[in-house]
Amino acid sequence: MNTCKATVRVLLAHRTYIIIYLVLMGIMMFTLSWSQITAATRTVADTYEPEKVNIAVIDRDSNRGGIAEGLCDYLSDSATLVELDDDSESLQHAVASNWTDLIVIIPRGYAADFLKAAQSGGDMPKVETVTSYTSGAGTIGGMNVNGFLSLTRIALIGRNVQIDDSELAAWYAQYAKSSAVTGQNGDWSQVMDGSSTFDLTSLPEGTLSNLTTADVQSAAKRAARTAHDAKVNRPVVVENITTQDDQEASTANSAASGFGDTMKTAIYPLFLTLSVCVSLVARVFGAGELRRRLMASPSTASIGLKRMGVLCGFALLICVGYLFIALGLTAAAGANIASIPIDGVMMTFISICMFALMCTACGFMLGEFGASDTVANGFANVFGLLILFASGIAFPMSMMPDAMVTIAKLTPGWWYCTAIDNALGFGSATSGTDVGSWAVATSIVTLFAIALVCVGLAAGRFRHSRPNAVASTVTQLAEV
Question: In Å, how far are 56, 60, 131, 132, 136 from 90, measured between CA atoms?
């Protein structure tokens, strides 16, 4: 009983390690796990709703030809129109503060230039644009603006183009003659369905004349109406067919995945806490006069067993706490913990207990080597990070190169995470819950613990067989 109390007092006297490694590190890992659980349980919509682009339209052409009004109407469904004053200070402020994703400036005389370009067949005049530097939304908005201007030009030309009737009649007569030779007999339907060889450049050239800004305004209105026409812009519907069994399996898998990922995050805080604390207790009991008194005691073996029993009980208490916290986090995230199989939870608990045993064995080994606090902390942090990053928690195992996978399989963290995957049927488990694979992975973790204990016993026997050349101070009588 005195040995148990002394072990507990040593742990409490060095509670700073418990607070930093177990509590604070545990909170950090729980935070990471919480983000993973909430992301996995978040409801995903079956339809895609793109974000609207913030666009400001600056009209310096006084809405001639109705281009500014038509552009705003065209963009109203796909963008959020932002009002902005047409002065240098407002424009610079809007760009610098990212008020808008795109600023469209219609320059003076744009409608007249647009009309001339349509009549002459030249290139369409461009509007001035200022795109936001923070995202690609402004570029998408610029594509919509160019689409409106192209539709306006097509509507303007298609509505007002004129073809001479005599030229059209002559062309048709020539086409009918050539089609009779080829055996088509002037069937115009064959031209329309594409089964006939048809050269568009052979058509008579149309002309545009007497166009006014009113024609441009009419074309802009027709182009804007296409953005609201359901027959032109047909909606895309995604039909999600999911059976009841698939829904239940998906719900159960998300809950098991969230619970399992939380239990995996115990790797780092558990290894730090147990390896350092167990090493610390072993160092205290193996230092100086106390060690010599214990070695002289007839019950040395029982004292050591009691000390390790208390430390194993401490590890078991941490495992139980981690189990309940993991279930609580999973339930708080909205997952149905009742869908997690009970046998999977029990196998997961056994796995974490075996991993805690391995951590305790590592601390025992460090203590038998006589490692100081600095050495124990350094070893625990370095090896703990190696276990963490090689276990598959930091990034998926599928992303690891082959060399990294080989190294990872030499660490207990890999097998601990593999055991949890097979216990709950997610992650690396390809065929659901696999008791055989779980047993193999958990046994390997246990073998790591046995190996560390054996190394620690060998190191302790070596140290005890070669005690330090330091003898206790004794009183010697001086000879006269």
Answer: 11, 15, 15, 15, 22
pTM: 0.58
For residues 289 and 297, give the distance between their C-alpha atoms in angstroms, rounded to a whole number.
12
* 202 or 367, higher pLDDT: 367
Phi, psi angles (nearest 5°) of residue 18? -65, -40
Neighbours of 304 (CB within 10 A): 17
Q: Is 131 helix (H, G, I), strand (E, B) or coil?
A: strand
From residue 13, give the alpha-carbon distance in Å to each of 142, 274, 280, 319.
Answer: 67, 15, 11, 22
Q: CA–CA separation, 408 vs 414, rounded Å? A: 6
Q: What is the DSSP letter of 46?
A: S
Triad 233, 236, 240: Cα angle to 5°: 170
Task: Answer whether 281's CB lies under 8 Å from 11's CB.
Answer: yes
Tokens at 373, concatenated? 């606090």
- Rounded distance between C-alpha atoms, residue 372 and residue 386, angstroms: 21
* The residue type at 438: W
Measured CA to CA, the distance from residue 44 to residue 41 in angstroms comes to: 9
Measured over all CA atoms, what is the biggest interatomic distance in the chain, rounded to whole angstroms? 150
Main-chain dihedrals φ then ψ at residue 79, nearest 5 degrees = -145, 160
pLDDT 10s digits, 356-412: 999 999 988 888 888 888 888 899 889 888 888 888 777 777 777 888 888 888 899
